[in-house]
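Figure S4 source data
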Amino acid sequence: MGLLAGSTIMLLTILWGSCVIVGKCDLSEDSTTIDSQDTKAFSLFGSGVSTDLQTSYAARIMAISVLPFIVVQIPQILKLQSGHRLTLLLGLIVAVLLLLTYCLYQIFQPWIQRRKLEYSRLKHVMSGLLKHAQMHTFGHLVDDDGTPNVSVIEKLFHKIDLDNDGKIGRGELQAFIVGVNFEDIELDTNLATDQVMADFDRSRNSSIEKGEFVDGVLRWLEEAKRVVAGSGAYSKKFMDDFHITTGEEHNALLDKHEDDGESIENPTWTCFKAISLLLLGTAMAAAFADPLVDAVHNFSSATSIPSFFISFIAMPLATNSSEAVSAIIFASRKKQRTLSLTFSEVYGGVTMNNTLCLAVFLALVYVRGLTWDFSSEVLVIFLVCIIMGLFTSFRTKFPLWTCFVAFLLYPLSLVLVYILDYKFGWS
């Protein structure tokens, strides 16, 4: 229970606040973030992040997912002497129903997958344009030491600027994109043109000026370096590696990878393999559960530190480290679409904690006839989820100062649990 509470609270406080700091961009006069522009340092009101409207829906779903916690606490809230096992069963049923509803929602309203697909499509268009430019421009876009060649980028600008008016219009950009051969994906050139225009046209005047074009290509090159950071030299092979990587990512999201036809030719085998992997993961989790609990208990006894605080603080940091690193790296790209995906994943992780993980926990407590006595933990989870849920459900722009709201909730949660357990006798 300490791990469940600690994981949920860490995601919504430390990780959420860190993503705001890492992903912050300059805010315009109307509080709109300017992608990839971070010149105002740590201005509490002049910099921040913004997400799309769908991300606020994910926050609302997360807030609703605390309902099972309320159900199981009904006897404590109403000070009932009986009905504890009934409310455990009701809480389990509610958690399972919410989990199934959430899964069905993801199937019939797959906006997170669509946004991932749109982003992967833009990255693949980006890699294709860079590869094409590398092959057809006078000189390499990147020198052998990895330094971008600005003069070559400017030559590319003049090549696309067909009427030589010093700016690239939508028609000129689309003509260039049409001339690039994207054999590995079906490309909607209109959509691709709109995405590239939105990414490059910072002045929002429906054209790309030379400075905007150079800045955009430089950002694309930095993005490509991050994607294939292990390739070493930034040369023609580096462009090819980036194009292959983005193509594989796009195909994986479409479930149309050319090297894997299982989803079409043999769906039975695909389902069997997926179920087998799930069962294997479940067996591994079950096998390591007892040693993990014993290790926490022994460490607690040796150090006289309450086991709850070990599982509340140390274990969530360990178990969520990979997810945290991935979220921070994604947020560091400083774009609204990547930040929207990052925060959506955070809210989705908390939702799964409040439904799937809680359902498993309640099932164990109910089947083995154990006592549900986690009032302080439930209260902390409820407060943090509701506060952050309400805070993020009705807004899409978060100035830098909002990260301190999240950060402060973490120590306050620890203090609240300590006071309730050790001063007021809750347990």
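Figure S5 source data
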Amino acid sequence: MDVLVSANRNVGQYYMAIRPFSDSSAAPIDNITTGIFQYTNSEGGLNASLITLPVMNDTDAMINFLNQIRNTNVSQNPRINVPADKDIKRRVFIALAVNNLPCSTCVVGSRLVATLNNVSYVSPSIDILQAYYNRNMSGVYTEDFPLNPPVIYDFTGNLTNLNTPVEEGTRVIVVNYGEGVEMVLQATQMGAGGSHPIHLHGFSFYWVGTGFGNFNNKTDPSTYNLVDPPLINTVHVPGRRWVAIRFFATNPGVWFMHCHLERHSSWGMDTVLIVRNGKTKKTSIRPPPSTMPRCPGT
């Protein structure tokens, strides 16, 4: 996230400090990063005492901070253009989870996988972008990513004895150029639970809503901030909560979407968003350059 800092305080030096936040049952590492914000014409001397930071699992402090973030109408920012309800042509509801798959070669008989809507992403041997360029190339991916969880359950409740079907695959989301898209990302208590930072390549999106527990598509949209939501490209999905994002699909191409916890991404908490070409050259993906290397065997 980019932030704008106004250097309008008393000349001097100011402490900065950052502590990681964790709401997972997995043991985190409590590293604190510190620094000093110093005015160039400062003669030295600190203008603030050491900062008192919340503890790592202080969910209330985290939520209170995030709820204060707003889009600011300044010249450095692009014009606010939040898709209204009437603009939304594609709605996607995604449950984030860490699951198990049977494994005959594993000591414990199963292995961990991470999923989006019970699909654990498999990286193909041929690049999806190349396959998309070559329309006659089949078998690399399928355009049937589930737009809703295949099983609806109490995502943020006690899931001790719940087993949901999980599959592996290279299944992508496809939208038309210019469509307004809404994605609701639902954290679950599957695995260790906890937060997931979800990143979408090729786009900045508006973080329009968040709430505790299970998303309710009847009542929760009334709480959305469609006036001045933050414009970001990675959104924090806190444990036991949901977030909603919106954007216009005006960047044609093939875009990776994944959890920014590398371990979760390597386990399969990924998908791909394909934005189809528009009706003009300007709204269409550029053709591949003649020098672009090809995958072996294609």
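The chain is about 5% helix and 30% strand. Helices lie at 59-66, 128-133, 262-267.
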